[in-house]
Specification:
alpha+beta; single chain; five-stranded mixed beta sheet; about 50% helix; two-stranded antiparallel ribbon; about 10% strand; Four Helix Bundle (Hemerythrin (Met), subunit A); 7 strands; about 270 residues
Length: about 270
């Protein structure tokens, strides 16, 4: 179960609320680091993510099978909302989502696997981690400086928050990057995420008509080992910045590892 995901989301919601309650009228309209979205649009998106578990019937139409296009469409549908309405919606929906996601931690419900368009299929209890990741990533990388426009203290990237975020992202490695990942992983590649909440995994080639594998620990027979801090991994694995420009170290077959990193896109 993913109780850590619920706790991390609750902690991140408090940080988001601190920021949005302090925004000036000008700051609501500033462009975020998320292409085409203002600060207000990022908050709309986070509210709609929460709406998906508490009032899905009220979501604007999306684009079936295309998560990122759906996100853009739903943000566009709220573009003319006032900042006051956006804040009220986020506060209400995020609070109710935390309660709803807590109810999915019972194994009788939480172990059920559900499809999430092109993200893949996941046990329901892991949705809390997806929401925690969404908050963690947007707040630090799209809203706050140095990449975002807002000059506010950056919340901690501690074991709780990074750990919950990585649970979601690592679970997505076999599915989110699609065929690109399957064709790029020709030999086992070790992944070592350092710092609070980090860990070690091995990505292994896909069997015929299957998905690449991800197992805990660094296997003895790896072509290369990729090492990066957790907060850095979130940035380059989501392709917000190229991995070659971030804190990423490769030991072993660099070409083999680079092929995998080029294919990786998590969201």
């Amino acid at each position: 179960m993913s109780e850590r995901g619920v706790k991390a989301l609750k902690a991140e919601r408090e940080e988001v609320m601190k920021v949005v309650r302090s925004l000036s009228a000008e700051e609501w309209e500033m462009p975020s680091d998320c292409d085409g979205w203002r600060v207000q649009d990022v908050i709309v998106h986070m509210a709609d993510v929460c709406r998906a578990v508490v009032d899905p019937g009220a979501l604007p139409p999306g684009v079936p099978g295309k998560t990122e296009a759906t996100m853009d469409a739903r943000v566009e549908a709220r573009r003319e909302w006032s900042s006051e309405k956006v804040l009220a919606e986020y506060e209400d929906l995020s609070g109710r989502a935390i309660e709803a996601l807590g109810g999915l931690q019972d194994s009788a419900i939480g172990d059920n696997v559900i499809p999430l368009d092109d993200l893949g299929s996941y046990p329901m209890h892991l949705i809390a981690n997806a929401f925690a990741f969404d908050h963690f990533c947007h707040l630090r990388n799209d809203l706050l400086q140095p990449n975002g426009p807002l000059d506010r203290p950056v919340p901690p990237s501690d074991e709780l928050r990074i750990g919950a975020t990585l649970e979601w992202l690592i679970a997505g490695v076999p599915q989110m990057s699609g065929e690109a990942m399957k064709t790029s992983v020709t030999k086992p590649i070790g992944l070592k995420i350092t710092g609070p909440g980090g860990g070690e995994w091995t990505i292994t080639p896909a069997p015929h008509d299957g998905l690449v594998g991800v197992a805990e620990g660094i296997a003895s027979e790896t072509a290369a080992v990729v090492t990066s801090p957790g907060s850095e991994f979130v940035i380059w694995a989501t392709q917000r910045r190229p991995w070659r420009e971030r804190d990423v170290k490769i030991e072993g077959d660099e070409a083999c590892a680079a092929s995998v990193l080029d294919a990786l896109k998590l969201f």
